[in-house]
Design goal:
mainly alpha, 2 domains, ISLre2 family transposase, two-stranded parallel sheet, about 80 residues, single chain, elongated
């Protein structure tokens, strides 16, 4: 198991090189950086930030996470299909 902030040199592939030929390698972003990344990427949709953070961090619910991501994607597609775009 490895944990990092996702900065340069601290991605899963970098840790894969360090751990070598282990049977399984699980890599996680720390909570602070995960929240920051979600808020940065969803700055255009603040209502979905808390929902995604809750689904990922507190409920550990993959299905709910997928539903939220699908909703975000659908909203983006709807926005791209407006006359202005």
């Amino acid at each position: 198991i490895s944990n990092a902030d996702g900065g340069a040199g601290y991605a899963k592939k970098d840790f894969d090189e360090i751990v070598g030929y282990c049977r399984q390698h699980e890599h996680f972003l720390d909570v602070f950086h995960l929240n920051k990344k979600i808020k940065d990427r969803l700055s255009f949709m603040p209502a979905m930030q808390g929902k995604l953070i809750s689904a990922v961090e507190f409920k550990y619910d993959r299905h709910l996470t997928d539903v939220i991501l699908d909703t975000i994607e659908s909203n983006l597609i709807d926005e791209l299909n407006t006359p202005e775009n």
